[in-house]
Amino acid sequence: MKQSIAIDMDETVADTLSRHLEWYCKEFGVSLNKKDMKGKRIYDVVSKENLDTVKNYPNHPDFFKDLPVFEDAVSVIQELSIKYDIYFVSAAMEYPNSFNAKYEWLKQHFSFISDMNYIFCGYKGMLNCDYLIDDSSRHIDAFNGDGYLFNAPHNSEQTNYKRINSWAEIGALFA
Amino acid sequence: MKQSIAIDMDETVADTLSRHLEWYCKEFGVSLNKKDMKGKRIYDVVSKENLDTVKNYPNHPDFFKDLPVFEDAVSVIQELSIKYDIYFVSAAMEYPNSFNAKYEWLKQHFSFISDMNYIFCGYKGMLNCDYLIDDSSRHIDAFNGDGYLFNAPHNSEQTNYKRINSWAEIGALFA
Q: How many CB pairs under 8 A join A and B?
């Protein structure tokens, strides 16, 4: 039986932070980039009165449209899918209006993974997979298998996790 | 730590068969009821030329609207939620246009269960829960924990499973 890898979406394969920054800067005329985000989530840096607006961005049907895939994610996951069962696991319940956009985005970029292997959930403690790759330490904390923290500005100061910096690194690790 | 129960939606808490029969009979002027369905799914009884139409019903936004909840499901699950972690686990990936309707239906009828405990998936073999209550034997086959087959016309002739006939029976079993 193949081992299984659960792969998060936002900030693990999908560059949602770029979209957040793009929309926030455009709407509120501010200048922010990824370098300003060390140790912070987007919600930590926006002003209090704009917080609800920014928190709602992922519910917009266009948020996922044309969203970049992280470098090497497609080719590495395609290679891994030969040896492992791959699941895409997104805490999509946090953004109930994002279901269809997330589904379409996965279909578009990872057509070689069956949609039967997509999981939209809230809590990731109920996953019965061998590995989880995720940018959120709280999901790795809840997970019962072997978790890897995918490097992101907001988690850059967290030291208690096995950090992975790129999809190329994942390819080598799971080869 | 609480034990966990994963609960399927369609034909386990939601009476989707009634809606299927209602729409099919109305659209094609036929007469069918649950008694005609012994050992059969709706897709086994509709004529070949209407199959695609009927298969597409659950993708319609109104399919889940006003859909009945099975008797005692709400009160029993509310009681169980004190002692167990409850997850609603639907193979919603089979009907990608049903995500929002399913989400709203669960919110409407089971507001006491956090949406963080909803899981929309395809395959249920990746669930790390103690129990699964499901009308589909294939999901119980894939599940790693202790599975109970919720009685439905289509599964009435399957004998290799622990069968549960009602939510009242579930309430007594897990008390």
A: 78
Confirm whether pTM is higher than 0.90: yes
Residues paired with B14 in a beta bridge: B10, B69
CATH superfamily, domain A3-15+68-173, is HAD superfamily/HAD-like (3.40.50.1000)
Most distant CA atoms of chain B, gap in Å: 53
Q: Do B125 and A128 touch (CB under 8 A)?
A: yes
Helix (H) or strand (E) holding A109: helix A99-109
Domain ranges of chain B: 3-15+68-173, 16-59
Choose the closest CB to A128 out of B96, B118, B127. Answer: B127
C-alpha A44/C-alpha B10 separation (Å) is 40
Joined tokens for residue B11: 């034909």
A116–B119 C-beta distance less than 8 A:
no
From B8, B15, B134, B135, the catalytic residue: B8
Q: Does residue A115 have an active-site annotation?
A: no
- Show residues of chain A in contact with B125, CB under 8 Å: 128
pLDDT digits (tens, 9 = 90+) for B63-111: 988 899 999 999 999 999 999 999 999 999 999 989 999 999 999 999 9
